[in-house]
Amino acid sequence: MKIKELDEIFDDYESYKALGEDSYIIGAQHPQNFKQHKKFIIPLFYFDGEDWFKLDINKLGESIFLASAPYTLTTDFKLEELIKVKGVRPNKQLTDDDEHNKEHSLTKHITHADRLSALSEDQLLEIFPGEIDFELHLFHPDKHYYDIINEVYVAQERKFFVESKDGLIYGPFVGVKTSTEAKAIRLSATGVRKSVEAYNLPSEAFLEFNMPEEGLKRKLVRSTHDIEYYIEDTVDFISRQDLFKWAEEQLNKKQSLEVADKVWKAISKDNAIHSFQERYQRLEKLFQKPQENLQYLQQFVTSLAENDFFKASLDSLQNEKLELDNSVAQQKRERDLVRKETGRLQEEMQDLEEGINNLKANEQKIRESLQKEREFAINKEIEEGLSKLEKVREELSDRAEAIELAHNFDNLARINEEIDNAKEIKHNLEISISALKEEFVKAQEDADTALKNLLKTKMQLDVFSNGSANSKKNTPAIEVLDIKDYRIEKPTAITTLKELSQKLHKRLGRLGRSYPDHFIANLLISMHQNSLTLLWGPPGSGKTSLGRYMIQSLTKADRYSEISVARGWSSQKDIIGFANPLSKRFQRANTDLYDLLKQLDGEFNNSTYLQSPMSYCLLDEANLSPIEHYWASFYSLTDSKAQLDKGLKISLGNNESIEYANNLRFLGTLNLDSTTEQISPRLLDRCHIIRLDLPRSNMPLIGSEIIMPEPFEIPFDNIRSLFELKDFKQELAPDQLEFIDTELEERFEQIASELRNLGIQISLRTRKAVIEYCNLAHSAMNEQFRPLDYCLAQRVFTRINLQGAESREGIKALLEIVKSFALKDSHAEWTLQKMLERGGKEGFNHHFYNYFSIDG
Fold first, then answer.
1. Dihedral of alpha carbons 804, 808, 813, 819, sign
2. 599 pLDDT exceeds 50?
3. Beta carbons within 8 Å of 771's beta carbon, 6+ residues apart
4. N or C end: fewer C-beta atoms under 10 angstroms in the chain?
């Protein structure tokens, strides 16, 4: 069947599932590659491991460009060699100008060197035309095919079939040697039986096509299993040398020949050889022409003459018999001596046993006597010790009563003093509250009066001042929103990070989510010590629902914004809004983040932020658009800290800005596929990436429709204390920070040294984040190296993006350091193991080590 006769068409070129090691495009080099040093591949057809498909050339293009520079095709592949293309991608430099594309050799699709390989031994076996000399095992291919067989199939020891002049196809063969002068190839059968099959193949059993530029006609079969139905005969294909070896093995079993001139008589009488009629007839022809086969016959007879059967003689047998008789007599004499010695030893053994029994009896008497004396002494010591202990107890009891009495008197005096102080404080507070109430009432009355006067003034201006009205048209209108009072009067009693982690762990458990305590602590620390934290995992791993639950457990619904990121977002106008130059008003984005920011701005201005809860924003599918673009306003503030007189400021345009007290955190979810954007190294240096695995099948999702418990009442001031935030205080420089645990510091420096050897530098920003995380996390995590393990998996190893065999050794060195942590479920160890596993596979990802490839 020819390619143009194929019914099915393949056009899914960008799919990673469609192209790979077992399903690929077959192509060949463009002849220009060897003349003009080009790098073009001409696609021929697609094979999915079972069937071949016609290619949609209009969509794929007439050729594919190899983008890997300075790699050239001509160094690794021959002109007529079939090339396996395991992946392509669209050419982003392609334009709508066909002339421009042609001038700059721009193709619709490109590929890379690591996505190209030769066909393996058993993939798509080829059929070559020619003549076979079955006696000499020589193949004389048609003259145009000799070079490709010699340079590719013989060199790579690949199987192929031969099509004879009578139309039958024989094989599979392997070419073992070539003769340049005779243009012949010595063949060998591939099976253990040293035989090949003869096939009568119909046209639909193979694919026939021509190579590019009127090249050679080629024929392929899918595999030997695919053509078993068309076997017509089995041909014995054993060489002359192997034939003699086979006969020698048969004759050596019987060892019945005595002289060389009787060899053929023995062969003709041997049923084992006679049963192989074709081989028997060939041997008969060889023995009928002894001069032509003298060398093989001499070797054959010589090997039989050296057989034990021919070398044996009566004299040697008699000598052996005499030696055996002498040996038997000597063994009889030795046996008698052994019997005598055995009797003597048995008598001595009986005497020894009697002595041992006597000693055991005396030993038992001595043991009983010593045991009695020891028990008496021990009992006496115990009685004396009990007597002393009773005296000590009496003394201690008397002293304890005296100490307790004195202590009670001291406590009573202190409690009375504290009660008096508390009464005084209560009285002062009552007076202060009363005064504040009066001031508040008066302030409200003054504000109402001022508002009425302001409205009257506005009405007068609107009526009598047209010039003023025209001026207003050019003045930006800043929207005034009501600032709500979220100050917390009765905070939830949480004094430590570990206590908060345990409370969240219980809430998750009631919803069927089972995460370790240290994982919850890790999530909390990452969320609050970083402006942005990203959750990454396969679809269905519960990233969004987990993030939603964590936020709704920490703050009120009004202080939480959930945003579904859309494709094409490019600036803050997509997430916050923009100043409209025509209306002179601020145009909100299709999110509620602007209202939340205005609330935070109001709290900073009226100084109520310390008593108000934190605010959070959940970015669902955060990397559908480049995060550093639409999140740029916050990206520039990731290293900033708020001060009492200066908060974090965002400019909105038209002289409007937002200023808040760094009490807003972002939590995003990531998916990594062809529809999403990559995470830039700049962003990786500023955030933690927490990976989630697929949950158990019976684990419920935390949807927005579930009624959540009331959030914990935790003001921002308490959050600052729980997570050791540096806002409103003097911060140390990154190079002045130190680990509390020196062992953690030692392991971290080992990791940093190995990464430097791989060409990866840990920035001061990342180093500072790791130290602050570890110094805080040790109070909430029981295992010493657990904090460092999380930091490596989520902040440090995210920068790994390496290629080459030498990189594998560096990653193995990192793995050995991480294994020394001795953690049962180490996240850093799992990450490195997956990188090594993915990079060790043959194919597209061979020797490619990237943090984000571990889920590929």
1. positive
2. yes
3. 737, 738, 739
4. C
- The predicted-structure confidence for 683-692, as pLDDT tens digits, reads as follows 999 999 999 8
For residue 701, what are the CA distances in angstroms to 485, 511, 522?
33, 9, 21
Least confident of 41-50, 310-319, 420-429, 669-678: 310-319
Rounded distance, CA 410 to CA 854, Å? 66
Looking at residue 309, its pLDDT comes to 45
Beta strand ranges found along 537-584 (DSSP E): 560-564, 577-580
In sequence order, which ranges of 778-826 are alpha helices (DSSP H)?
786-791, 805-819
Tell me which residue of 527, 511, 500, 545 sits closest to 790, measured CA to CA: 527
The two beta strands, 207-210 and 217-221, are antiparallel
What pLDDT, on a 0 to 100 scale, did the predictor assign at position 359? 81
What the block records as the tokens of 715 is 């003001």
Q: How far apart are CA 667 and CA 524, in angstroms?
A: 11
Instruction: Tell me the C-alpha distance between 643 and 661, whole Å.
Output: 8
Q: Which of 846, 819, 842 is nearest to 830 (CA)?
A: 819
Find, among 243, 250, 240, the residue nearest to 304 by Cα.
250
* Structure tokens that stand for 511 in this block: 């919803």
Bridge partners for 209 per DSSP:
218
Confirm if 832 and 793 have CB atoms less than 8 A apart: no
Any idea which of 92-101, 488-497, 753-762, 803-812 has the lowest mean pLDDT? 92-101
- Using an 8 Å Cβ cutoff, are 47 and 23 in contact? yes
Backbone φ and ψ for 757, nearest 5 degrees, come out as -60, -30
User: Do residues 73 and 118 lie in contact, with contact meaning Cβ atoms separated by under 8 Å?
Assistant: no
| Phi, then psi, of 742 in degrees rounded to 5 | -70, -30
Are 689 and 794 in contact by the 8 Å Cβ rule? The answer is: yes
Rounded-to-integer distance, Cα 116 and Cα 100, Å:
27
Helix 277-288, helix 294-305: angle, nearest 10: 110
pLDDT-derived band of residue 382, with 50, 70 and 90 as boundaries?
Answer: confident
The DSSP bridge pattern shows strands 24-29 and 40-47 to be antiparallel
Cα–Cα distance for residue pair 195/236, rounded to 1 Å: 5
Q: Mean pLDDT throughout 322-351?
A: 82
DSSP E strand boundaries for 237-348: none
CA distances from residue 742 to 398, 746, 749, 785 in whole angstroms, order as listed: 48, 6, 11, 11
Mark out the alpha helices in 580-732 (DSSP H runs): 593-605, 627-630, 632-635, 681-684, 716-722
Tokens of 577: 């809004």
Measured distance CA(733)–CA(726) in Å, rounded: 12
> CA-CA distance, 68 to 13, in Å (whole number)?
19
Q: Is the pLDDT of residue 38 over 60?
A: yes
- Say if CB 820 and CB 747 are below 8 A apart: yes
pLDDT tens digits along 794-821: 999 999 999 888 899 999 999 999 999 9
Omega of the bond prior to 516 within 30 degrees of 0, cis? no
Burial class of 202 by CB neighbour count within 10 A (0 to 12, 13 to 18, 19+): exposed
305 pLDDT higher than 50: yes
Report how far residue 724's alpha carbon sits from residue 708's, in angstroms, rounded to the nearest whole number.
28
**Would you state the torsion angle of the CA atoms of residues 558, 559, 561, 562, taken in this order, to the nearest 10 degrees?**
-80
Dist CA 632 CA 842 (whole Å):
40
List of residues 6+ apart from 436 with CB closer than 8 A: none
What is the average per-residue pLDDT within 300-311?
58
- The DSSP 8-state label assigned to residue 362 in this structure reads H
Task: Quote the CA–CA distance of 236 and 279 in Å, as a whole number.
Answer: 8
Residue 157 falls in which region: left (phi positive, over 0), alpha (psi -120 to 50) or beta: left
